[in-house]
């Protein structure tokens, strides 16, 4: 979790930045110079509230404890409230000056009146951080970011810290309903935090909103960290895709959710992509370019099985394209061949113990002396090998 004192200091700065909207000239003076405004008009309650908050902020910035700074400014805040009892800055100063046994009840009442005020909500947030209460942290930040989305960068770190706590999952599931823009943006950011992944997987199963960017990143991060079972669990939570028209064993060219769909190379001189109608893999490589053009995982079929491949590549270039099958946990190929030597397909006679997935890699290598390579792989199909079949 973010250090509470550091956060309060940040909130003080942010709170001072959010000046009250004013129309009258006297109120404009209040905003620019509260001390001067108080001297001109001693009954100006907003000026007293602002002066109290400024005194509190300045003292805290100079090294005084929060309680000391607030206690020194409390008489000014009380004077403001005696004239106008609904001033959030004055409430924030008084809350910070109270004994901890009284502060929570005061903050609960005051924040209910001022859900849009950053400085007061910051006090509620500090209390929740000190109490290690993720529910209140999330609820308070939801209120803050609905009104002040420009502070997402500052507060997403706090929310990610809360996401690492398993206790926070129910609160996130309740609050992240898509009713404000920061919800989907936060989910995407949190999916980049490896310590949050397990809790995000729990949360994904309970979310009422759908974010493709979040789903894609969550599945991909599990895949990159070698947690394939969790990646598959997250993938299974996606809305069902129509499969009734697909032939058994055929591998499509979808490329949305790696590692269970394709990941394609994409550079100026070397790329792979699905054709417009989605029926082919198109390959392009300039001289001297190459590498893994396409890769994905499939559930390991029962061995023995064969990966049959149909393609459209001129004879002289078939040796530039290689297809490899491996288990993710080992670099030793199960089967490997260029298109020139692949024959009827790649055959895997047996799988190592624990090999639940098979990685398919299409590698392209174009020597400098050759011309640009273009071609298509039209179809890949996994099928069992019968006793009468041969390589």
Contiguous uncertain segments of 5+ residues: 1-34, 36-41, 242-247
- Coarse morphology: elongated
Number of helices: 15
* Subunit organisation of the chains: single chain
The fraction of residues assigned to DSSP E strands is 15-25%
Rg of Cα set:
31 Å
User: Could you give the order of the helices and strands?
Assistant: HHHHHHHHHHHHHHHEEEEEEEEEEE
Compute the average pLDDT: 82
Q: Assign a percent range to the helix content.
A: 40-55%
Major beta-sheet overview: 6 strands, antiparallel
Describe, in short, the structure shown.
With 391 residues, the protein is an alpha+beta fold. The chain is built from 15 helices and 11 strands.
Describe the structure.
This protein has about 400 residues and is α+β, with helices and mostly antiparallel strands. Helix content is about 45%, strand content about 15%. The protein is built from 15 helices and eleven strands. Strands 1, 3, 4, 6, 9 and 11 form a six-stranded antiparallel β-sheet that branches. A five-stranded antiparallel β-sheet has the order 2-5-10-7-8, with no helix packed on it. Strand 7 and strand 8 form a beta hairpin. It is elongated, with a radius of gyration of 31 Å. The N terminus is likely disordered.
Topology:
Layout: H1 4-17, H2 25-32, H3 34-40, H4 45-61, H5 66-83, H6 88-97, H7 100-113, H8 118-130, H9 134-147, H10 152-163, H11 169-175, H12 182-190, H13 197-204, H14 212-224, H15 228-236, E1 250-251, E2 263-264, E3 270-274, E4 281-285, E5 290-299, E6 305-312, E7 321-326, E8 333-338, E9 346-348, E10 357-365, E11 373-384
Antiparallel strand pairs: 1-11, 2-5, 3-4, 4-11, 5-10, 6-9, 6-11, 7-8, 7-10
Helix pairs in contact: 1-4, 1-8, 2-3, 3-4, 4-5, 4-6, 5-6, 6-7, 6-8, 7-8, 8-9, 9-10, 9-11, 10-12, 11-13, 12-14, 13-14, 14-15
């Amino acid at each position: 979790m973010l250090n509470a004192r550091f956060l309060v200091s940040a909130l003080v700065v942010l709170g001072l930045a959010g000046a009250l909207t004013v129309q009258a000239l006297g109120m404009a003076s209040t905003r620019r110079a509260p001390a001067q405004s108080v001297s001109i008009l001693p009954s100006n309650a907003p000026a007293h509230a602002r002066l109290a908050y400024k005194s509190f902020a300045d003292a805290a910035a100079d090294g005084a404890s929060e309680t000391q700074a607030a206690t020194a400014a409390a008489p000014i805040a009380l004077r403001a409230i005696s004239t106008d009892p609904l001033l959030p800055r004055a409430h924030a100063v008084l809350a910070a000056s109270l004994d901890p046994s009284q502060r929570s009840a005061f903050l609960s009442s005051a924040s209910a009146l001022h859900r849009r005020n950053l400085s007061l909500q910051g006090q509620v947030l500090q209390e929740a951080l000190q109490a290690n209460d993720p529910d209140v942290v999330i609820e308070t930040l939801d209120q803050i970011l609905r009104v002040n989305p420009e502070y997402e960068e500052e507060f997403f770190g706090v929310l990610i810290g809360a996401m690492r706590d398993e206790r926070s999952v129910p609160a996130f599931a309740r609050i992240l309903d898509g009713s404000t823009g920061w919800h989907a943006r936060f989910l995407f950011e949190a999916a980049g935090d490896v310590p949050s992944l397990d809790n995000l997987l729990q949360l994904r199963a309970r979310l009422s909103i759908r974010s493709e960017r979040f789903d894609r990143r969550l599945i991909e991060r599990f895949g990159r960290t070698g947690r394939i079972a969790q990646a598959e669990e997250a993938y299974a939570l996606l809305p069902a895709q129509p499969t009734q028209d697909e032939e058994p064993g055929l591998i499509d060219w979808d490329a949305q959710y790696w590692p269970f769909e394709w990941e394609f190379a994409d550079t100026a001189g070397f790329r792979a992509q699905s054709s417009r109608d989605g029926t082919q893999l198109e390959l392009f490589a300039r001289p001297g370019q190459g590498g893994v053009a396409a890769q994905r995982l499939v559930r390991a079929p029962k061995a023995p099985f064969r990966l049959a491949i149909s393609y459209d590549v001129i004879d002289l270039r078939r040796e530039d394209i290689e297809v490899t099958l491996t288990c993710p946990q080992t670099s030793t190929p199960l089967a490997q061949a260029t298109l020139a030597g692949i024959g009827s397909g790649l055959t895997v006679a047996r799988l190592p113990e624990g090999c639940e997935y098979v990685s398919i890699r299409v590698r392209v290598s174009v020597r400098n002396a050759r011309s640009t390579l273009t071609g298509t792989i039209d179809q890949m199909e996994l099928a069992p090998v019968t006793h009468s079949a041969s390589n």
